[in-house]
Amino acid sequence: MREVTLKQIAENLGISITTVSKALKNYSDVSKSTKERVKEEAKRLNYKPNVFAVNLRTKESKTVGLIIPEVVHHFFSSVVNGIIEQAEKKGYLVIILQSNESYKLEKKQIDLLIRKRVDGVMMSLANKSIDIAHLKELQSHDIPLVMFDKISKMVNCSKIIINDRKAAYEATKHLIDSGCKKIAHFRGALQPQNSIDRFLGYKKALEDHGLPYDSSLVYLCENVDYEDGRRAALQLLKDKKDVDGIFAITDMAATGAIAVFNEKGIKVPDDISIMGFSNWFLSQAITPSLSTVDQPGFEMGKKSFKLLYKEMKAKKKGVPFEPKTVVLDTYVIKRNSTK
Amino acid sequence: MREVTLKQIAENLGISITTVSKALKNYSDVSKSTKERVKEEAKRLNYKPNVFAVNLRTKESKTVGLIIPEVVHHFFSSVVNGIIEQAEKKGYLVIILQSNESYKLEKKQIDLLIRKRVDGVMMSLANKSIDIAHLKELQSHDIPLVMFDKISKMVNCSKIIINDRKAAYEATKHLIDSGCKKIAHFRGALQPQNSIDRFLGYKKALEDHGLPYDSSLVYLCENVDYEDGRRAALQLLKDKKDVDGIFAITDMAATGAIAVFNEKGIKVPDDISIMGFSNWFLSQAITPSLSTVDQPGFEMGKKSFKLLYKEMKAKKKGVPFEPKTVVLDTYVIKRNSTK
DNA sequence: CTGAAAGCGCTTACAG
DNA sequence: CTGAAAGCGCTTACAG
User: The HTH lacI-type domain covers which part of the protein (chains A, B) (predicted)?
Assistant: First the structure.
């Protein structure tokens, strides 16, 4: 099937390409009757504008890029969902790339998106990204950028985040309020800001409530996953620390711990209370169901695109745009892994 | 920052645009020294070809579309992962769209991808899609199509599937082999082929092993999710059917059932064995861990792109391409929810 | 080995 | 109200 062009419509109707183009775009300087004839013919031929040509002329692709550390991940897939739903409403398509938490790959993906001339980029930083040269490069091409969840304070762009420290504080406080006296923390890698912030929130909550902070109760979960949670829980048992509560950095790590306790016949929450973080689907499906902190992924995705859209629109109009930082609310969800 | 063009390089070097273009693409009819000069200057200026112009000339976008029912879904996100990893290797970008299991939306997404002139499309059919006019439309534009998991037999295109009937047969057989005598089935909606096939596999396994098929032991889980599994399990208990095994259409439904039994003090697998389907991450994290059938999402994504790539290449060369159907292996994974 | 020229299919400033 | 023309930035068949 030969693709239909403006030229073909023009020839069929015996008018110029210019007029056809303007008629289809409802320019005011085209007569009503001509518009009707053109639109009818376009419909009849099932005309679809050649986006390649439109892109070249308008210097816009109506496409945005999204870089996330991992696709197979409840939180990020929720973000993706929020983004593509919102983008669709505004007629934008979304190209998704993965960084696999690698700095090198993230750099490569940014470069791909620059080459592709996307109209904007949304991203959550890879754990191993320290340098931000690639983001500066992106911005030097005048491509609007929005960061979410894992951000860099060094980059001047819009950001959508939660208050990790506060959220972790409240999670820990929930354990304290329910009677825990000796609370361990399964923390994430040393690098990422949100791992640091959650740790600090935990520490602060202890201090504010008269519980001594003990660094030997902090276990490292490098990958914040199920296996890490299992390992940390087994180590905790070996250490015989007599802990009565755990605040885990993610639901996955918390789930690993619960699995270990279930196997060993240790009762959750009677013997030990467990608090997760994120409110992944998982947390309501395990036994006992997991108390956690809700992290609004879908909302974060939606807001990310909305902000990006605003910036793209401002850029198009040549209006200056002031980057914004939006902090989304989180809240503790009590289930059966805490008293 | 003004974008660098071939013209600029040509002017800087005092040669023609043609030669610059050819030098950068390593045409054999350009002198070595010119190539070197051009490449050096391109690098110095950080030249990036304008893809919009390249697309227009080559009529290729190096972009493919992907339509899935839901992004937030372990299986589909695994497929997405396989696809974008493979696409990246070949220099393709992936646009992801969601159908939300709706026929109308699926149609719209197909239309978007046609307009966008993607080089190819991969998709898993929405549950509510019966009509295939939109897929015919896609093919009439000569855009290669690969379907995976949920396919339509009416469309002549490459397909990547599993043998649902066989997989369900083996899952049921596993229950029988472990001693179950009265096995219920939590089935999916009546429409989708894979829901039908899994039901048929269940039925066939009973018949082949001398167990009577009893339609009152088949419970409908319209959305094949956690809530459906809970509902079905509660109904099953109410019905007092004295069942000693359940084959659930998905891990989610199985997980809902396990949660109900855990709450009611019914021992899994001692009182009742449960078999899931898909091997989502979830299934190893719950207590007891869930026996299931592994459904290779990542592999399916990889293969989907590979086949699509072959077809796109054939099309470009003008070589005829014969659609293939690939059936991926599945296997039973025994965990603690069965004896 | 180099380059002038046509053309991909649009959009839009401008002339009439 | 209509249309000729320029131009977006490439690629490539062709001439020299």
Answer: 4-58
Q: Indicate the CATH number for domain B6-49.
A: 1.10.260.40
**Are B297 and B79 contacting, i.e. CB atoms less than 8 angstroms apart?**
yes
CB contact under 8 A, A77 and B72: yes
Return d(Cα B80, Cα B284) in angstroms, integer.
Answer: 22
Domain ranges of chain B: 6-49, 59-162+298-329, 164-294
pLDDT of A241: 87
Burial class of residue A315, CB neighbours in 10 A (0-12, 13-18, 19+): middle
Query: How many angstroms separate the CA of A246 from the C1' of C6?
Result: 72
Closest Cβ opposite residue B95 in set A55, A70, A94? A94
CB-strand contact B15/D, under 7 Å: no
Other C-beta atoms within 10 Å of B112: how many? 17
Sort strands B218-220 and B183-187 into parallel, antiparallel or unpaired: parallel
Give the three-state DSSP class for A137.
helix
Superfamily of domain A61-163+298-330: Response regulator (3.40.50.2300)
Q: String of b and e for B243-254 (b: at least 16 CB within 10 Å)?
A: bbbbbbbbbbbb
**B108 contacts B80 by C-beta, under 8 angstroms:** no
Among partner residues A55, A59, A286, which is closest to B285 by beta-carbon distance? A286
Q: A164-294 has which fold?
A: Rossmann fold (3.40.50)
Nucleotide closest to residue A8 (CA–C1') = C9
Per-residue pLDDT tens digits for A169-228: 999 999 999 999 999 999 999 988 899 999 999 999 999 999 999 999 999 999 999 999
**Cβ-contact A165, A330 below 8 angstroms:** no
- The pLDDT tens digits of the residues spanning B232-264 come to 999 999 999 899 999 999 999 999 999 999 999
Q: How far is CA B292 from CA A99, B246, B251, B262, in A?
A: 30, 11, 7, 18
Rounded distance, CA A67 to CA A126, Å?
9
Residue A325: CB less than 7 A from any atom in strand D: no
For B59-162+298-329, CATH gives 3.40.50.2300
CA(A21)–C1'(D4) in Å? 14
Q: At a CB cut-off of 8 Å and minimum separation 6, what does B204 contact?
A: B165, B169
What is the per-residue pLDDT across B308-333, written as a single tens digit (0 to 9) for each? 999 999 998 888 999 999 999 999 99
